[in-house]
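Justification of computing resources. Each target in the renewal requires a structure prediction run like the one illustrated here; the chain below, 214 residues long, is used simply to show the kind of job we budget for.
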Amino acid sequence: MFKFALILIYIIAIFLLSIFYKKFYPRNTEIQRKIIHIGMGPLIPISKVLEIEQTSALYFTGFISLLIFLNYLYKLFPNIEDVDRKSYGTLFYCVSLFILIKLFWDKDPTSLMAGIFIMTFGDGLAGLIGKNFTSRGWLFFHQKKSINGTFTMYVTSLIVVLCLGHFQEYDLNINFFIIAFLVTALEQFSIIGIDNLIVPIAGAISFNLLITHL
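Resulting structure tokens:
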């Protein structure tokens, strides 16, 4: 119970930070959501340090997914997602986390962290940079994309996989760059927030196949 209490305290702290930000900057809803989006990333390494078992992590993630689903139905916590638009990004985010925990929690936690960190930091920062710094852009399936946002996604994803590879003492090779390119390409498919599902899963599986080979 103590371990889950620590996890819960961390989650509450992230939500309070988002609410605090909204109080002073109510119009910038993008940053409000990205605080939660990026803030959830460290949950995986925190949980691994606390030695939480896979089954417990799955139950906890499933419970959070259910709460997110209920939020879409009843709009209980609008800070989590801009529920007035047709996006299920946060729900997909939780579902992808559930899938990756099932696949890699014990087998290959580095690949798990690769997928989640690519999503939280890569996609999260891409959204912030793309929306707050003007650059040329394009429409992809009616979703606006920009040079700044796409470049940020690639660079951040590359940094994530390179750092994880370095910590695990894997040799530097072209596969790191291929993974970053793959997830950046998939991030273009952001209709209804589906990128929050396909990007972390593709990132983790490709890291597992191309880098760790576990």
